[in-house]
Amino acid sequence: MSSSTTSCRAATEPVDVREIGTIEYTEAWELQRRHVTARADGEGPDTMLLLEHPSVYTAGKRTEAEDRPTDGTPVIDVDRGGKITWHGPGQLVGYPIVKLADPIDVVHYVRRLEEALITVCDQLGVHTGRVEGRSGVWIPADDRGVERKIAAIGIRVQRGVTMHGFELNCNPDLGAFDKIVPCGIRDAGVTSLSYELDREVTVASVLPMAREAVLAALEGDLPVSDERWLPRPEAPAAPGVTFALQN
User: Fold this and answer.
1) Tell me, what's the pLDDT at 241?
2) What is the pLDDT of residue 181?
3) What DSSP string describes 150-212?
4) How far apart are CA 81 and CA 218, in angstroms?
5) What is the pLDDT of residues 87-144, one digit of tens each?
6) Per-residue DSSP letters for 109-146?
7) How far apart are CA 186 and CA 50, in angstroms?
8) DSSP per-residue letters across 12-31
9) Helix (H, G, I), strand (E, B), or coil: what is residue 32?
């Protein structure tokens, strides 16, 4: 595994961060593809898109039929790893499009994104961590509920360049997750910063923290910690695969 105290990026120039507000999922997907092609061809910089989507369900390559809505709600099938999830207002979405340094270590890249989001939650006073065998950022079971995910990660690496990325639930309508089996995981819940803190936490207030933390994690200024695994009596029944790799 590559060191978490060095950059995982092939480039040394700063990442071009673009805060683009609310954008339809398919429009953002096409924008990502253009950036990925340009980066892979050496014609564009590493880029990170930070945004929100109107309400939409997207299904990764491992989505099962039983994970999908049963009421006919439309779902967009996408080329990232992982299963089905929801995007919508109140959720910060980040798409880092970066050329990874050799040797490419996709799992460690996911761990860097997790570390960044764990740090953001720490800054807001929400204790989170990782779950062995699963990706994303989690809150342990307590008197408020079962083990629950507050941030999800699903990526694709194409020609050495990352796309898709992460989402952090700030103040979304969590009822949107009730129509699906989020990430194909039936034995856990979904939560938000607003729910955990009992106060309104907006995307606008969280975005600057997430921007800083993700960039620091990519560069190795925020090293991946082995101390943030949540204690569990046993491994989860449905581990999530969150990335797809294409040469």
Assistant:
1) 47
2) 61
3) EEEEEEEEETTEEEEEEEEESS--GGGGGGS-GGG--S-EE--HHHHHTS---HHHHHHHHHH
4) 20
5) 999 999 999 999 999 999 999 999 999 999 999 999 999 999 999 888 899 999 899 8
6) HHHHHHHHHHHHHHHHT---BB-TT--SEEE--BTTBS
7) 29
8) -SPPEEEEEEE--HHHHHHH
9) helix
How many residues are listed for the chain in this entry?
A: 247
Residue reference for tokens 């919508």: 88
Peptide bond into 89 cis (omega under 30): no
- Listed as ranges, residues in the chain with pLDDT below 70 are 1-2, 181-188, 233-247
Active site residue 183: yes
What is the phi/psi pair of residue 129, to 5°? -170, -170
Q: Which of 8, 121, 170, 183 is catalytic?
A: 183
Strand 47-52 relative to strand 16-22, pairing = parallel
Measured from the Cβ of residue 24, the count of other Cβ atoms closer than 10 Å reads 11
Q: Identify the sign of the CA torsion 3, 155, 132, 140.
A: positive
What distance separates the 2 farthest-apart alpha carbons in the chain? Answer: 52
